[in-house]
């Protein structure tokens, strides 16, 4: 089981700066989008396959449960809170020498808290990065996402790579 080790110098608590940076960048970019792009519109077509948009997501990844009637907000708030607390204590019990694990965990933690803030304050998550592929007869759209989502995905991907290719966590 976890031991609380705030004062143990060898843990990864200093890596929490990564989480803080993710949270700040996430909230700043969402604020810029909120203040400069009308809801449910394309603000900037950057390339033929990428646009900056402004959409709300009341669900989870890929808008999962977005039309569930409102209860999902509290469910996702609870799950995100539990995961954040777990990751925080996991980091406090991770040796700082395992720097890639610490960075991965803090990326996931920062992303989880970034989206948790949106859910708690707004009751939805603001997304703004939209990739798509247009063909002659159809447009394939990847669901819009944000900085917090990127941090969670990169952190999770790094954890997978660490577990497969390094001896850091063995």
Largest sheet: 4 strands, antiparallel
Count of DSSP H/I helices? 4
Question: Any idea what the radius of gyration is?
Answer: 18 Å
**Number of beta-strand segments:** 4
Query: Which residues sit in consecutive blocks of at least 5 with pLDDT less than 50?
Result: none
Shape: globular
Tell me the strand order in the biggest sheet: 1-2-3-4
Cα(first) to Cα(last) distance is 17 Å
3D architecture notes:
This protein has 170 residues and is an alpha+beta fold. 51% of the residues lie in helices and 16% in strands. The chain has four helices and four strands; from the N terminus they run αββααββα. Helix 2 runs antiparallel to helix 3.
Describe the structure concisely.
The chain is 51% helix and 16% strand. It is of the alpha+beta class and 170 residues long.
Could you name the key traits of this structure?
170 residues, alpha+beta, four-stranded antiparallel beta sheet, 4 helices
Topology:
Blueprint lengths: L15 H21 L4 E7 L2 E8 L13 H22 L6 H24 L2 E10 L4 E3 L5 H19 L5
Antiparallel strand pairs: 1-2, 2-3, 3-4
Helix pairs in contact: 1-3, 2-3, 3-4
